Structures are given as C-alpha cells and as structure tokens.
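Hi V.,

Quick status before I head out on leave. The structure for the redesign project is tokenized and pasted below; the design run finished overnight.
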C-alpha cells in the first residue's frame, strides 16, 4: 500500500521500476518520509511499499 499526503506520488512511484532507486529518490527530496518500508528482494510489486509523509 502506498500512502501519501500530496497528489502525484502514486504516479511518480509507478515510474520507478527499481525499488531502491525510488527509495533513495524519496529520501533526497523535501518530503522526508516518516516511515519507509522497502520490499525484500522477494517482493515484485511496488504496491508492497508503504511511505508516509509529514503533513
């Protein structure tokens, strides 16, 4: 499940096929994740990621 407090993050996440690159990108922008659960290598779907942002 992917949760976000601002529009567009879901569509942005769908553009990333590499989960690690997506996580690093999210960590580098102004929206610092409160919680970041990255899939294990066994995960294949991006909807397994849960990201919560500060309001």
């Amino acid at each position: 499940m992917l949760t976000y407090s601002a529009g567009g993050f879901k569509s942005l996440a769908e553009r990333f096929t590499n989960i690690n690159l997506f996580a690093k990108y999210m960590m580098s922008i102004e929206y610092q994740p409160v919680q970041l659960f990255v899939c294990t290598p066994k995960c294949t779907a991006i909807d397994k990621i849960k990201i919560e942002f500060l309001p």
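Above is the designed sequence. Helices lie at 9-14, 19-28.

G. will cover questions while I'm gone.

Best,
W.
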